[in-house]
Amino acid sequence: xxxxxxxxxxxxxxxxxxxxxxxxxxxxxxxxxxxxxxxxxxxxxxxxxxxxxxxxxxxxxxxxxxxxxxxxxxxxxxxxxxxxxxxxxxxxxxxxxxxxxxxxxxxxxxxxxxxxxxxxxxxxxxxxxxxxxxxxxxxxxxxxxxxxxxxxxxxxxxxxxxxxxxxxxxxxxxxxxxxxxxxxxxxxxxxxxxxxxxxxxxxxxxxxxxxxxxxxxxxxxxxxxxxxxxxxxxxxxxxxxxxxxxxxxxxxxxxxxxxxxxxxxxxxxxxxxxxxxxxxxxxxxxxxxxxxxxxxxxxxxxxxxxxxxxxxxxxxxxxxxxxxxxxxxxxxxxxxxxxxxxxxxxxxxxxxxxxxxxxxxxxxxxxxxxxxxxxxxx
Length: 378
Prior knowledge:
Layout: E1 10-13, E2 27-28, E3 33-34, H1 48-59, E4 67-69, H2 76-79, H3 85-96, E5 100-101, E6 103-104, E7 107-108, H4 112-131, E8 137-140, E9 154-155, H5 162-174, E10 179-183, H6 190-196, E11 202-209, E12 232-237, H7 242-261, E13 265-270, H8 287-304, E14 309-313, H9 322-333, H10 345-349, H11 352-355, H12 359-372
Parallel strand pairs: 1-4, 1-8, 6-9, 8-14, 10-11, 10-13, 11-12, 13-14
Antiparallel strand pairs: 2-3, 5-7
Helix pairs in contact: 1-9, 4-5, 7-8, 7-12, 8-9
C-alpha cells in the first residue's frame, strides 16, 4: 500500500464505547413490538457496521498509519448549542432508568447518554484536530449517528446531532464565519437542516433519495429563511440514481454553490446507506462512487478552506458493504493509491448507473438547478 501523502496527516476518531450503544431488537407495527420470529431480529442500526469498518481499516494496514484523535464527552453546555435543555435532561433520565426511546425510533440503552455525548464529542475533537493543524483532514467513526436529531427529540436512530454540534463548536471555539455541511446520507439530514435553516453562516447541502425519510423534509423548495435564505440546498434524487448521478449533482450543483459560499471549514455527514445492498436505501452507489464523492469534497476543501475537512459517520446498514465503503472514503482522505480490494465491485462497475446519468436523475438535477439558480450562479 502506497500513499501520495503521509497517511498520518489524516486523523481517525474512534472509541470502543461506540460499539456499546444498545439499540435493542428490531421493531414492527404500531405500537412498536419485536418481530414475532423464534430467533430475535436485531435492530438494523447495530454495532456491526462500525466495528467491521474499524476491523477492515486495521486489516488493510491503514488504521495503524492514521493519526488517532481521542474523542471526549460533550458537556451539557455544548449539547445545548443545538438541543433544548429539557431534551438533554430527558435523555439522561431515560438512560438512568435503563433505556428507552429518546423520541421517534431513537433507542438507547442504560449508558446511552454517555455514549451519545461521546459521539458528539468525537465530532468536536475531529474539528479541533483539523483546525489546530494536527491533521489535514479527519474521519470521525462515531456511533450513534446524529443528523436526524432535532432540538427537542431524537429521531431515526439519532440521539444528539453530532455534526450540528461540531459546526457550532467550530463557530464558538475558532470564530468561523462560514461553514459548509454536505450530507450524502441516503436520508435527508432534517435535524441539521432545521438547526441552520435561518442561519446565513452555515450552508447545508443534502443529496438524498427522494421522499424516503423524513418524507416532509429535504424538499426542493426548502431553501432556508431569513438570513439563511438560499443557504439550504436540497437535491432529492430518484431511487437507483447511482454513481454517475451523484457525481453529476456534485459537479453541477454542489461544487458551484460551495465555491460561491467560500467556507472556512467543510464538514461531511457521511452516511453509507446510499450504497448498493443497503436494506434502507435504493441508491446503488459503489465503493468507487464514494471514493469519487470524497475526491470531490477534498478538492473543494483545498480550493475553498485550506484543505480543512471533517467527515462524520452517519447511517449505513449493510453489515457487509458499509465497511468497504467506509474504508474507501478513509483511503481517499489519506491519499492511498493502492486501495484494499472491494470483493463485489465488479458486479457494480458494469451497471448502467455507474456510467450514465438516467433521465429521472437528469430531471432531478435540472429541478435543483432551477430552484437554486434563484440564489446562486449555476
